[in-house]
Specification:
Number of strands: 0
Structural class: mainly alpha
Distance between the termini: 119 Å
Helix content: over 70%
Number of helices: 3
Shape: rod-shaped
Order of helices and strands: HHH
Length: about 150
């Protein structure tokens, strides 16, 4: 006799195709990151986050559609497995969120550094242009003085 407590939370025919599609998208994105031209720190953070999301998606699909247990009348092994799997999922989700936060902070850091370099380049170009104009003005002034009686 199958009780409601010993059956999966959702049917496998519903969860597994959705989880499989999500895992394909996550894996494709993680692989595509390696081919792009971006700073190494950003690649490392996003790759680690992609791998963690793949693992969480697989664990979530297992917990929702395949794993049995969690009910009051279940065997202790099933209850233990139920608790452990959900603890792993709940432990990894904050790590995924933290890596996303690290990625945002890293992006801010890279943006600030790029703006600093751009400002320095603009300041140097402006300074060089001003010096060139000043040199032209001095030469013109010297030429005007030499030609004047």
């Amino acid at each position: 006799m199958v009780t409601l407590a010993s059956s999966p939370i959702l049917p496998a025919w519903l969860v597994l195709p959705i989880a499989g599609a999500a895992m394909l998208v996550i894996a494709a994105h993680t692989v595509a990151i390696q081919q792009t031209d971006m700073p190494a720190s950003r690649k490392r953070i996003r790759t680690a986050n992609g791998v963690l999301m793949l693992f969480v998606t697989a664990m979530l699909a297992y917990a929702l559609s395949i794993m049995r247990g969690g009910g009051m009348g279940d065997a202790p092994d099933q209850a233990r497995e139920f608790v452990l799997v959900w603890m792993v999922i709940m432990g990894l989700l904050p790590l995924v969120i933290a890596l996303a936060g690290f990625d945002a902070v890293n992006t801010l850091r890279l943006h600030t550094a790029a703006r600093r370099v751009l400002r320095r380049q603009m300041r140097d170009n402006l300074k060089n242009e001003l010096m060139a104009r000043r040199a032209v003005a001095v030469r013109a002034d010297d030429g005007a003085r030499r030609g004047a009686p």
